[in-house]
């Protein structure tokens, strides 16, 4: 019975940690406007944009349909390097990524919480860069959301 209860609570987001892995922020603009605003916020904050991936465009290139969806890959060596010093495997998760996508409920910005993203690595839960990354993602997505 306990495994079943754990499954139900997890599915409902009642178990701490599971509901907090992916942070979603509702946007006021369309995907392109929101992604442009996010990219401007990232560069304005002094971070480097490494890639902008158009998932819907990729789907269209193989004659498939996907609602508008773009991924921004960006980072700042001042934040990412300490994580990779603590555990080189952090390089599998960094640079940071934010997805801007449209679903039936509107346009969203989504990202994985840094503490959760790096949780399985040899990184202290109280590493300063985790809260700095989380704060940066919060500010950048709020600015891009236009709300």
Automatic annotation (TrEMBL):
Domain of life: Bacteria
Signal peptide: 1-19
CDD domains attached to this UniProt entry: DUF302 (cd14797)
Database matches in Pfam families: DUF302 (PF03625)
UniProt KW keywords: Signal
Domain DUF302, chain residue ranges per copy: 53-114
Name assigned to this protein: DUF302 domain-containing protein
Organism encoding this protein: Actibacterium lipolyticum
């Amino acid at each position: 019975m306990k495994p079943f209860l754990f499954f139900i609570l997890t599915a409902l987001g009642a178990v701490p940690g599971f509901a907090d892995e992916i942070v979603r922020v509702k946007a006021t603009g369309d995907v392109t406007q929101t992604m442009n605003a996010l990219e401007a916020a990232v560069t304005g904050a002094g971070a480097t944009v490494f890639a902008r991936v158009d998932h819907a465009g990729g789907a269209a290139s193989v004659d498939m349909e996907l609602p508008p969806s773009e991924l921004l890959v960006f980072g700042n060596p001042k934040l990412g390097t300490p994580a990779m010093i603590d555990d080189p495997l952090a390089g599998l998760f960094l640079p940071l990524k934010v997805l801007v996508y449209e679903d039936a409920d509107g346009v969203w910005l989504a990202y994985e919480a840094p503490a959760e993203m790096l949780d399985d690595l040899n990184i202290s839960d109280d590493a300063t860069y985790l809260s700095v990354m989380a704060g940066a993602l919060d500010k950048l997505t709020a600015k891009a959301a236009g709300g």
